[in-house]
Amino acid sequence: MLKIPFICPLENGLHARPASELEQRVTPFRARVTLHNLRNQRQVDARSVLALIGADVVFQDACELLIDGDDEQAARQALGAFITNELAECDAALVTPSVSHEQPLPVFLAATTAQCLRGGGISPGLAKGIAVPLGTVDLLRLAQQEAPQEAEHQRQMLIQALSAVRDQVQTELRHAQGETADVLKAHKKLLHDTMLEQALFSVPNARNALAALAQGITQLSLPLRESRSVYLQQRALDLQDLGLRLAAFLLPGPLFTLPELTRDSVVISASPITPGQFLALRGTHLKGIVMGEGGETSHTAILARSFGIPLLCAPEVRVPDGTPLLLDSRYGVLVIAPDACAQQWYAMEAEKDVRIAQRLAPLLQQKGTSRDGESVSLLANIALAAEAEGAFAAGAEGIGLFRTEMLFCERSAPPEEEEQYQAYRHVLEQAQGRKVVIRTLDIGGDKPCDYLNLPSEENPFLGWRAVRLYPAFLTLFSHQVRALLRASATGPLHIMVPMVATLEEVKWLHTQFHQIAEQLQSEGLAIGEWHLGIMAEVPSALYLLERAAAYIDFVSIGSNDLLQYFLACDRGNPRIRHLYNHCDPGFLRLLNDITASAQRAKLDICLCGEMGGDPTALPLLLGAGLRQISMSSGRIGQVKQHLASLDTTACRQTLEDAFSCESANEVESRVKAQTAQRNHPVFDPTLVMLDQRVASKAEAIKRLTDNLEVEQRVSSGTAVETAIWQREAVFSTALGFAVAIPHCKSAAVTSSSVSVLRLNTPLMWGDGVEVSLVLMLTVSEQEKGDHMKIFSKLARKLMHEDFRQQLLQGYDPQAITALLERELTR
To answer: Alpha helix (H) ranges present in 716-798?
Structure first.
């Protein structure tokens, strides 16, 4: 027997995804492979995902793989390489936007007299609706109500139920995308696990099939519930969901009737809501969920975040059916039977959210444009076909990089041509004629593919990878090219080849693509508009573009690899990570030269990679002449906004200045200093609100700080609101003359501002003083001047009757803004 000792490197433990990866690596070998958790002494079959999960392997557990069989040497070599090189990368750290139960309530909401229950915000958002409590299903209790069954009859019923649920999940999976598809894939894996069948078919003296199911699911869930890992504890929800699906096929009547939501509702459940229940409840009237447990990493939480449904985890929530509720999972609070104060707070929050959405909506659908009118296409990088829809919704003007490796890796055999064709076609359908760039297989280096059996290399990043592999795996390459060219019949397609370094490679690619296109046409298969291009990620690309133009149509700068090859700097090596900086002056010259060379050759040019989504790099890219930039879809809105503030002529000068810098840090400092000069002006008509109907001081302050958030002058309106009230607690800012000047200096202020709120009806500000005009000063902590000087100057000006009257009687926000700027800046 051979052993492979290791320490678990997975922060979330050995849950479904890495367990599945390990199971796939074990499957090709005949030898018996056992996972031994030395902490709890559990030994499990490594061919079963459920067994591996049940071993309760958590971060830094000491473990070993035990290998015994006639091919144990080969198994140890392959599994040892997986444990050493890949296991730690099988699961990224989870982003869990939970909210502390102790987080203070917003100032305005804290004044409510309604009952507020606190919890953990798992999926952030704001919701309003009636309470709809859910019941629970006790399978063991239901089993006692069913007639006894013979053991063989039980077995046949369970086999039929398994088959039916497997078909059901497979059918749902064909129509699912995004997070829903991920959940269903996990369930499909569990349904085909041999350990599930063993658990269901080996329950002794079960009364009937339902009892066997209930006891089997309990047995499988027990080690997960007892795990030290919260993440693994929450995997029991997946088993519970499968148990309910299977039980539905064992009972003659309905197992569990979910309520039909006919009004806007907040669903309340003392027990965890399963992913299947969530998907069944989801509809126009599901506004929020409160459940007793479930955690940030459950599939239900992932689905809630994906669909934008606020989710709060709070214990012991008992609310009668139909009770009005307000839910704000951003602050971890459920307001029961909200009073007028809470209702008003919700209305103002909802109004603010609508204004922010209205501001962003046209920006997302508009084309990227600089301040001086230059068009810049902002495209999205994706790795899965299912990401395309979300990318376009996020404002992408096209897909600048579809990495196809996910179709090929994490599986035991390459995808068939038809599977690839369907994935590529889906993206083109979503694009509806917009630009789509799909990169051919980029295998090797940091992207191994086990079934290719690639040899170990001393320098894999400089070795046999990407285009260099294609001649040796010509069938694999040809199937991908066929799928891509067939997909082009759906819409115009740009096909990009990675790691091209020589003209010979360019010519070989040109020949291959055209030969395969001719072959497809001879078979009667349709081909549409397609273009061939290469990635410029090897520095030698600079010197071949003009000659390659006879064979290709476009080039895309792969900034990640190009930078590491240019600086001879492994970006994964922490000892030299400081060298890996795309603001390096020499690298900026290379980008500039590649862009100029492509433009001389009349080649379409784009840039993809991390640099594309970096706001600091944006003026440098514009200065180099790049007008197509691809990035992660989540950054597109921010980049469009930043783009609108940049002048391309000034950006060219910024780049020229960067060439003379001595370091990347100096480049970054210069760019940030120039960007800072383009902040919002202190006085602006958008900060002037005239003749408003406001009922209280609290409402006045919230409306002003909400407006700052809408106008993107603060990182958090609530934080600035709190800072204003902290100063109000020291002394009232009512100045007299029916004027108040609330003010603060806060790190949450990104642009210093003077806001104006003129009231229809005077309100009490404090100390028996009524005010009709509120002038609010919010100053950034980065402000060099003392905001008290601004306060004092404004206070002195307000002593003058004519100045006050102009503010009180003016009807034009532009005129009032000009007045303030003229009187307070001279």
So the answer is: 717-730, 787-797
Token pair belonging to 289: 């969920």
CA nearest neighbour of 16 among 53, 47, 51, 46: 53
Helix axes 717-730, 697-710, angle to 10 degrees: 140
Cα 330 to Cα 103, 107, 123, 127, 326: the distances in Å are 10, 14, 8, 11, 12
pLDDT of 607 above 60 = yes
523 has a pLDDT exceeding 50: yes
Checking if the pLDDT of 38 tops 90, the result is yes
Is pLDDT above 50 for 100?
no
Q: pLDDT at residue 783 above 80?
A: no
Lowest mean pLDDT among 657-661, 689-693, 726-730, 786-790: 786-790
Distance CA 414, CA 469 (A): 15
Cβ(133)–Cβ(321) below 8 Å:
yes
Q: Is 377 helix (H, G, I), strand (E, B) or coil?
A: strand
Residues classed as catalytic: 15, 299, 608, 743
CA distance 620 to 626: 9
Instruction: Give the DSSP letter of residue 543.
Output: G
Residue 642: which of 682, 614, 663, 603 has the closest Cα? 614
Across 254-281, average pLDDT: 82
Torsional sign, CA 309, 315, 320, 325: negative
| Residues 793-818 pLDDT 10s | 888 888 888 898 999 888 899 999 99
Q: What angle do CA 588, 592, 598 make, to 5 degrees?
A: 145
The DSSP element (H or E) to which 32 belongs, if any, is: strand 32-37
Residue 625's Cβ-side half-sphere holds a number of Cα atoms within 13 Å equal to: 14
What distance, in Å, lies between the first and last C-alpha atoms of the chain? 86
Closest CA to 387 of 410, 403, 369, 363: 403
Domains of the chain: 2-89 (3.30.1340.10), 107-136+258-338 (3.50.30.10), 139-248 (1.10.274.10), 370-676 (3.20.20.60), 685-825 (3.40.930.10)
